[in-house]
Every structure is written in structure tokens, then in C-alpha cells.
Design brief:
CATH class of the largest domain in chain B: Mainly Beta
Strand order of the largest sheet of chain A: 2-1-3-10
Strand content of chain A: 15-25%
Number of strands of chain A: 12
Structural class of chain A: alpha/beta
Radius of gyration of chain B: 31 Å
Largest sheet of chain A: 4 strands, mixed
Distance between the termini of chain B: 39 Å
CATH superfamily of the largest domain in chain B: Porin
CATH architecture of the largest domain in chain B: Beta Barrel
Structural class of chain B: mainly beta
Distance between the termini of chain A: 82 Å
Number of helices of chain A: 16
Oligomer: heterodimer
Strand order of the largest sheet of chain B: 3-4-5-6-7-8-9-10-11-14-15-16-17-18-19-21
Largest sheet of chain B: 16 strands, antiparallel, barrel
Number of strands of chain B: 21
Largest interface: A-B, 32 and 31 residues
């Protein structure tokens, strides 16, 4: 081999050695549910700064948003998410079961059952609250029109349904027949069933239909405090369900892409004081006590029950209420 | 909602109030009017939702993006996708005092690829190429794909044999394939069973084809004999195992067939350098007894591997091609062999792959992003059986008995659609000239590629 070619080959080997020593830029894909857009836009910038300070490395986080169930199906079908941050643990369970991309015990990998922030459901009514809506039992009054999406297709709609059912159980000493009757009467007052939360918001706000919209507390706080202040009122029911959006590293994808360490750090940082502060600023209830205390006045006080306490977990709730032929199908007939 | 729509609704509500209830139209605060207003809004919204659902269920989607263009039916059962690539090259030879090779710009490939899906399990591909001002079909086949583990393909496509040959021309590490790849069959027409087992750990293919000489592509057969082809390629540590082995894949491929030629139609290959200069031909002569032709069984075997670790990649394959050859005087089985090692290193942090590099930071100088850069280094060799010369099937004064090539290259992936490539390759020969060894070929090939 001639001398010039030898020099080129040596230069190639030298460059190869130098390159492997340098920190490499990384991208992550975070597949999330619909309302978290603004929160993760802010969080991703903060985390990228934190990662650079800690490791000198650069990270770019790409986001995907949509209905929680739809996002889970996309990941099952092959969307290469490094992490998922979805509305329901059940949706991440479905990814684990149907694709095997994360283990069945994924929820134990992070604190608080992998739920860095929580939320609940509340009511949005028109200015002046013309129908005098104060609690769940007002939603079944004749003449009250309730807007909620279809629980067969929407994640928040399932939370809404379970919150109503849970309220009725508590109000009737655990009588399931009474709870069924209550939810039946509630859905009789639902004039339009949109397929998702965004459609339901359109129906209520843009089309002017209905007297009350049931939705995520964080969404309704955003509407009343930032987007449409003064036009609507937030009504907090006496009791509601603790909605626990969950997060997980999609381990098989992260392992293949070599992003396990940074993906884990990305989710762990949600639990840090900075991550919790950001969550609270975006109207998610923080789980870190010190931050929760500082933002206590921002969140209405109400009694919250968990899905485990009342329904025995998501799997049982899904099978009993939302599977084909389940309670909702019988109610809505 | 439009203003006209809003006004129409208010008029309708008022009319109903007067006509239906005998009540004079009243301000919107009137409860009856409000009820009617809500009922109309609800009906309109239900209609809107029904129309949205109906449209979603029947309307096809048309999309355009970095992966090309697509028309997809609402139920995704019917799809037509169009993509392709354009490669424009500049070839410049050095150390060519007799000007035997022509420096040139050329359109190396201009390929359109149409992928269709019809129903759950049926797909097809048609891929014409217009490079070098010729029109050739590169792919034309039907797939039946009921299960990723078992698929059937029939038509004209690449033979599942050589590792580098199986890469898309738009995704190879160098602009032209290695010397050893000249021993592999190119495209052929046949029927193949193929699939992926064990969650992506094992890829296999087993097929029957018309049979083609080394490096060739043939549409129709000239005899009844057919080639059997088989290939297995394993990635045993892909999902589990130590990190250092996750990127290791290896396999073996083989072909068995019968090649029959004659002194008027030898049915034997010739072999070219990466600069597309022919350096080995079997002898043809006006004296038919001296013309070499294919005369029987051809067997090929190719162990092969690909390994990646971080931003480093290494491809290797060895190919043995054994062909029975005869002329008017004798008949022999000739073993020609070759091998290559190609190393690549991505300088910008991305991982290399057999499918190219997708830049993490696509070209955007305003943001200080320059795409991805990959260095490549290759050594390859091709050696012909001594018997080819001893028995007079080839002339050592015109055909080299062996060739060795060393190449270096830079691949600049500006975006996932645009790639610039610069290669330098030097090939040295043993024999092949009237006065000894054929002069070295030193060539620079620059390429601009647009892919969608």
C-alpha cells in the first residue's frame, strides 16, 4: 500500500479513537397524552440544561401527543418511544402486555407507583353558574346538560365515569345498583358523546352546548386562569378520583438505542424539586411534599379516592366497566 | 361556526317559537328559546360528529414527507407509496497516462419505487431505474405476508445472498460495491420464502430462481435449470446479552445451480473494478475451441457478518464461487473467491447501520447543525482460480489473476434525504497486462444523492 494511503488510514483510525472519547448528542422520544404539551415543552428545556450541567452531554427531546389510548396503541404498533408519559397506568400496562417492550412490574421502578404528579377531575360551568351546579348530584338533575367524552375512546372520559361511580358508591354506602343508576342518569343528561377530550371541549366552549364540562383539573385551571379568564367558573365537587398519570422507560427501545441512562434520568428529574415546581406551575398536583405545600392554595381541597381503593385497580375497572359488554355498554344502551 | 350559520340558527329558533308555540320571538334569555337553541346546537353538533366519523372512516389520507408520498385508505388496507432516489456522480481517474479511462459526470441511478398494499396480506413493489439514460426494472414482485415469520415473494428482485449486495444502493458505505461483491448474484426472477423469527433474532430466506452468473441480473431463463438459494442471518444478542455484543449479526448464504453456456453464448461473467473498468474476462475467440463457456454446476457460499458498537461499524464477508467451465479442449471446476472488510465511524454521535445514518441534527447552519458525518475504510480482494489460466479459460495478459483494493470515504448526511459522498479507491492487480501487472486503478468518485 503506498505511503499516502497509509497516512489516510492512520488518520481514519485516529479520528475513530478521538470520536469515541467525546460525549455524544442524544435524542429521546417522549410519547405523552394530550394536555401535557405546554408542561413538557417547559420541562424538556429545563432537563436539557440540567443534563448538560451534570454530564456535559447534549440531549434533544422530541414530543408526541394524543389521546392516551391512541398513543399506547402507536407504541405497541412500533413507535420508537424511549419514554411514555400517559394518562392511565392501564395504557402502559397494555404496552407491556402486548409488545413486551417493558416489564410487567414497570410501575415499581419509580416512586409513587411511577406517578410523579397527580390530578383529578372537576367541573367547568358558564359564568355565573346559571344552573347552580355544586356537586356530582347536580349533574343528574333534569334539565342539566353534561359534557363528557365517550369512555370507550377517551382516557379522561374513563376517569370521569369512575369518579361519578365512586361518588355514588360513597353516597349510597357502597350500593353498586345505586351507583349504576346514578351513572345511568348522568349519561342520560349527556347530549353529545365526543370521541375525545378535545372534542368535548370544542362542544362546550366553541359550540356553546351543555351546562357543565367534566375534565382534567389541570386543563380547567388553565382555562379559567390563563386562556379564558372570567368567562367560565371552576366548580370543585365534594369528592373525586385521584387521577395518577404514570411514566415509564420503554426499556427495549432505550436498550436498543443506548438511551437507558438518560431516559431514566429524564423521568427521575420529574420528581426533583425543579421538576415538581414546573408541574405545579402547569397546574399538576406535585407529589413532593415541600412543593405541594407551597402550591397548596392553588389547588382546591376535596376528598380524593384512588382507583385501587374503589375499583381494585385499572385492570379490573377496565374489564368491569369499559370492555365490550361491560357496565358502560349496558348503561348507554 | 360561520356567522351565516349562527344567524340562520337564531332565525330558525325564532320561527319555531312563533309558529310552533304561538309565542312572539323574545330575547335569548327566554328559557324556551334557550332550550330550542340548545336543541338545535346539539343536533348540529351530532351531525358534525357523525360527518367527522364518517369522513374519518372513508376518507383516504394523502401524505408527503421525508419518506416520500403516500395515499392510504381510511382502514389502511389499501396503500400506494412512492419514493426513490437520484444519484449523480463524478468519476475522476488518476495515474492514467494512456487515458484508457474516461473522467466523467453521470447520473448513476434515477430510481422510482412504488410500493402498494392491497388488503391485509398482499403487497407489491415496482421500481424502474432511469440512470445512465437507460430504463431498467430493478424490482418487480408480489408479496404475500400473512405473518412476519412466513412470507412469500414472487417476481424479480435481489437474490438473498451477498450482505453488501442486499443493501440498498442508497445506503452502502461506498459509492460502488467491493471487489468481492462481484462474485454475488444481483437480481433474478423466482419464488422465495422468507421471514423473521424469534423477535427479530433470525432472518431467513429460501428460494428458487432462474439462476444468474456472478454479478449479473437476468429477467428470463435460457434453460430449464434453476438455482436454489438459502440464507440465514442471526442477531442472537439483539434483545438480551451483554451490551458489547448487542450489535453483532452474522450468517451464511449459499446458492446451488446449473449454468449452461456454449461457444456462441458463454453465459460466464466478467468482473469490474469499482471504477467500472473490466479487469477479468473469460476467453472468447474466433477459434471456438478456445472460447470458455459455463458447463455445469455453480455453487456459491458466503459467510458474512456485521457488527456495531456505539458509533463504530464493521462489515465483513467472504465469498466462494465455484463454477464448472469448459472450452473445446477441457473442462474444469474453477474456484474464484473474494472477501472484504469495511469499517465505518460516525463522527457526530449517531450509530452506523446497514441502512445508513439518520442525522440527529439535520443540516441547519443558522443553528450550528451540520448533519452527520461518517468515515469509511474498506479492503477487498478478488482471486481467480489458477486453473482458469493454466487451462486456457482466461488470458493472463488480458485478465488479472487477482485484484486488491483499498478505499477510504467520507459520507456526509446533511439530512435524511440528502447525502454527499467522496471516495478514493486504489486497486492493484496481479497479471492482466501484456508486460506483467495491469496498472493500478486510482479513482475518486464523488456523489450527490437525494432520497425520498
Amino acid at each position: 500500500m503506498n505511503k499516502n494511503l497509509s497516512i489516510i488510514v492512520l488518520a481514519f483510525l485516529g479520528a475513530a479513537l478521538l470520536v469515541d472519547a467525546a460525549p455524544k448528542p442524544v435524542t429521546l422520544l417522549n410519547v405523552s397524552y394530550d394536555p401535557t404539551r405546554e408542561f413538557y415543552q417547559a420541562y424538556n428545556a429545563v432537563f436539557a440544561r440540567h443534563w448538560k450541567e451534570q454530564t456535559g452531554g447534549e440531549v434533544t427531546i422530541n414530543q408526541s401527543h394524543g389521546g392516551s389510548g391512541k398513543q399506547a396503541r402507536s407504541v405497541i404498533d412500533g413507535l420508537q418511544a424511549d419514554v411514555v408519559t400517559l394518562a392511565l397506568a392501564y395504557d402502559i400496562d397494555a404496552i407491556a402486555e402486548k409488545s413486551g417492550r417493558l416489564p410487567a412490574d414497570w410501575q415499581k421502578k419509580l416512586p409513587h407507583n411511577s406517578s410523579p404528579y397527580v390530578s383529578t377531575l372537576a367541573f367547568l360551568v358558564r359564568k355565573g353558574n346559571p344552573k347552580g351546579i355544586r356537586d356530582w348530584n347536580d349533574l343528574v338533575r333534569p334539565g342539566v346538560s353534561v359534557i363528557t367524552p365517550n369512555p370507550k375512546t377517551s382516557g379522561v372520559a374513563r376517569w370521569n365515569y369512575l369518579a361519578a361511580w365512586g361518588y355514588a358508591l360513597k353516597a349510597n354506602n357502597g350500593d353498586a345498583a345505586q351507583a349504576r343508576d346514578f351513572v345511568t342518569r348522568l349519561f342520560r343528561n349527556v347530549p353529545v358523546l365526543d370521541s375525545g377530550a378535545r372534542g368535548a371541549t370544542t362542544t362546550f366552549i366553541e359550540r356553546g352546548i351543555g351546562d357543565v364540562l367534566i375534565n382534567w383539573e389541570n386543563e380547567l385551571l388553565l382555562v379559567t386562569k390563563k386562556l379564558n379568564p372570567g368567562e367560565y367558573e371552576l366548580i370543585v365537587p365534594s369528592v373525586s378520583i385521584l387521577a395518577e398519570p404514570t411514566v415509564a422507560v420503554v426499556e427495549k427501545v432505550a436498550a436498543r438505542r443506548g438511551t437507558q441512562k438518560i431516559a431514566q434520568a429524564y423521568l427521575e428529574y420529574l420528581y426533583s424539586p425543579e421538576g415538581q415546581e414546573l408541574a405545579a406551575q402547569h397546574f399538576y398536583r406535585p407529589t413532593l411534599a415541600s412543593v405541594a405545600e407551597r402550591y397548596a392554595n392553588q389547588f382546591p381541597k376535596l376528598t380524593l379516592f384512588t382507583i385501587d381503593q374503589v375499583f381494585g385497580g385499572w385492570k379490573k375497572a377496565q374489564e368491569t366497566h369499559f370492555a365490550d359488554g361491560g357496565e358502560f355498554d349496558r348503561i348507554y344502551q | 361556526m360561520s356567522r351565516i350559520h349562527h344567524v340562520r340558527r337564531r332565525l330558525l329558533v325564532g320561527f319555531l317559537a312563533v309558529a310552533g308555540f304561538g309565542i312572539p320571538a323574545a330575547p335569548a334569555a327566554d328559557p324556551t328559546l334557550q332550550e330550542l337553541d340548545q336543541k338545535i346546537r346539539i343536533l348540529e353538533r351530532k351531525l358534525e360528529i357523525d360527518q367527522e366519523n364518517a369522513a374519518a372512516q372513508t376518507a383516504p389520507t394523502v401524505s408527503a414527507g421525508s419518506d416520500g408520498f403516500a395515499i392510504v385508505s381510511a382502514d389502511k388496507a389499501y396503500q400506494l407509496k412512492m419514493h426513490g432516489y437520484l444519484q449523480t456522480d463524478a468519476r475522476f481517474y488518476f495515474n492514467d497516462p494512456e487515458d484508457k479511462s474516461v473522467d466523467t459526470f453521470l447520473v448513476r441511478r434515477a430510481r422510482l419505487i412504488f410500493d402498494g398494499r392491497f388488503g391485509e396480506d398482499f403487497e407489491m413493489r415496482i421500481a424502474p431505474d432511469f440512470g445512465n439514460n437507460k430504463t431498467e426494472l430493478q424490482d418487480g414482485y408480489l408479496d404475500y405476508k400473512p405473518d412476519p415469520r412466513v412470507n412469500v415473494r414472487m417476481g424479480y428482485t435481489k437474490v438473498p445472498f451477498g450482505l453488501e449486495r442486499l443493501q440498498s444502493s442508497s445506503e452502502t458505505f461506498f459509492n460502488e460495491t467491493a471487489l468481492s461483491t462481484a462474485l454475488t448474484p444481483n437480481s433474478d426472477t423466482g419464488l422465495v420464502l422468507y421471514g423473521t423469527l424469534g423477535k427479530g433474532i433470525l432472518d431467513y430466506a429460501a428460494g428458487v430462481y432462474n439462476g444468474v452468473p456472478d454479478g449479473a441480473s437476468v429477467f428470463t431463463d435460457s434453460d430449464d435449470a434453476k438455482d436454489l438459494v438459502g440464507r440465514v442471518f442471526l442477531s442472537p444478542f439483539k434483545n438480551t446479552g451483554p451490551d458489547v455484543l448487542r450489535g453483532l449479526s452474522f450468517g451464511i448464504a449459499g446458492t446451488v445451480g446449473d449454468r449452461q453456456g456454449s461457444d456462441s453464448n458463454p453465459n460466464l461473467p466478467s468482473y469490474r473494478t469499482c471504477g467500472q473498468q473490466s479487469f477479468f474476462n473469460y476467453k472468447t475467440s474466433t477459434n471456438k475451441a478456445s472460447t470458455a463457456f459455463a458447463d455445469g454446476e455453480q455453487v456459491r457460499v458466503a459467510p458474512q457478518f456485521y457488527y456495531t458498537l456505539g458509533s463504530f461499524g464493521l462489515l465483513g464477508e467472504y465469498i466462494l464461487s465455484e463454477q464448472e467451465v469448459a472450452n473445446g479442449k477441457s473442462s474444469d471446476s474453477l474456484d474464484n473467491s473474494g472477501w472484504q472488510l469495511t469499517a465505518s465511524q460516525v463522527l457526530t454521535g449517531e450509530s452506523p447501520s446497514l441502512k445508513g445514518v439518520k442525522p440527529l441534527r439535520p443540516y441547519n447552519p443558522a443553528k450550528g447543525d451540520w448533519g452527520a458525518i461518517e468515515l469509511a475504510l474498506r479492503y477487498s480482494e478478488l482471486t481467480f482460480d489458477d486453473q482458469a489460466f493454466d487451462a486456457g479459460y482466461a488470458d493472463p495478459k488480458k485478465s488479472a489473476s487477482s485484484a486488491e483494493a483499498v478505499g477510504v470515504g467520507v459520507n456526509w448526511y446533511l439530512t435524511c434525504n440528502v447525502k454527499l459522498v467522496l471516495n478514493y479507491e486504489q486497486t492493484t492487480f496481479t497479471d492482466g497486462a501484456s508486460d506483467g501487472d495491469r496498472p493500478d486503478e486510482q479513482i475518486v468518485i464523488a456523489r450527490a444523492q437525494f432520497k425520498f
